[in-house]
Amino acid sequence: MSDKEKALGKIVDLAEKNSLTIDDIAAYFVRHAAGTPQGANSIVMKLLTYVGGLFIFAGISAFVALIWDDLNSAARVIITLGPGLIALIMGLAALKDERYIKAATPLFLIAAFLEPAGLFVFLSEYFDGDDAALATMVVFAPLAAQMGLLFYAKKQTSMLFFTVIYAFAFLGAAMEKLDVDGDLVATVLGLSGLLISHAINKTPHRAFVPFTYFIAAFCMAGGAFALLESAFPFDFLLIGVAAAMIYASVIAQSRSFLVASVIVMLGYLGYYTGEYFADVTGWPIALIVMGMVMLGISSYAVKLGQKIGNTSAG
Amino acid sequence: MKPFLKENFVLVLGISLPVILIIVFMLAQSMTKLVDPPQYSAVFVLENNHNNDMFYKFKVKNNKLVVTYKKPDKEDKYNANYNYRTSLYIFDPVKDDVEEITLETPENAKDGKWVNVTVPNVKDLQINPAKESPDGYIFEEHHRRNSNIFSDIFGYYSGKNRYALTKQGRHVPIKNMSYTYGRDTFIGWVVKGENGQ
Q1: pLDDT over threshold 80, residue A8
Q2: Any idea where the domains of chain B sit in the sequence?
Q3: Are residues A178 and B29, on separate chains, in Cβ contact within 8 Å?
Q4: C-beta of residue B106 within 8 angstroms of C-beta of residue B115
């Protein structure tokens, strides 16, 4: 066992003995790093580095956009797909050297954007197809496989994140190709996203899970709403959907999922009042009741959030 | 295998749901292949017109297409600037080929008068103006979006696939039209001449 692993073992022991969560430890680190002059300098340096990098990237992108019409097909593919592949290779190389390991994730991020862009340009330049769904499938199937294999080999969280995104892009396009109703696609992919987020939340690669919970929750709720909207009496199932989401967010112990679920619940309640009470004389009363329900739910959500915060780092 | 499934039930369920949906729809779509493919060419018109004026009229009389044209009373700035055009399309589903005939302004056009226009490629065709073809297909807008969030993000454009021949769930999209925007008018089915019987 290496010194680093021994130290981590001690930290875990101490955290368990003192009921500390990962959030508590992370927050302490952030607080104390920012408080020291060295920490403040480090933050300014990081900020300037990121902004500088963004400026360079934006400048190169703007330059490419300016000369785009003058480029032939091969040049267009090379200028988009090429940097994507190079960024990926550089990211993999950075993983091998402790000094550059922090550069790996930004490089993977660049690769994750430029590789699909390059493949779409390739399809657009060399194929006469007329099918965006098929193009999306052709682009994201190999990319999902690529990122999946890289994740299997390197166990990097960013690679898992892009594997999930690419796989969902492929699945969504496949459903679109099969003419599956868009609302059903959103519902199924949203539900699938919630389940997969829940599974990933139990692994060390959980850093992006709050984001995917949030997106998947809205995706599922939006799809369910579009499917059931104005379909009396089935639209009353929506309240069950929102309640189930709040319950699931507590089970999953995720604040982002809870926030999304509460917004969904309020949205559905707004729909009911507008749909069934807007034209009756009791509309002002309905508004007051709605307001009280909102207050009640928000208060309950705060309590749940605190409970989640106390029991987990979700 | 069983312990793995038990341990990763949520993950397996999350991955399986969209896959199951895809398989169900693939099966449903494969059923539509049992429907016979279309045999008759469809004739339709697209007018890329920026206002509601109609400069061309299309009518099927005794199974022949009659096209008439009226010159606009005054210069239409919008259509002059935006490259107004009217195109007649013949889609042959057997060859999966679409022929575009751009209608030219007739030389004998006079202000405010309807004049006949001869369209060489169409004048010998026998056209059935029924909504449904003799083999049961109808011409309609194909509602599948030709873009998605990812093709939009990465700037992949494909918007040339707006119409289709459909029958009992089978869609035969009309591909490779040079443009697909504007007002559409369905004319009829070619029942004699070209691939008509």
Answers
A1: yes
A2: 2-32, 41-192
A3: yes
A4: yes
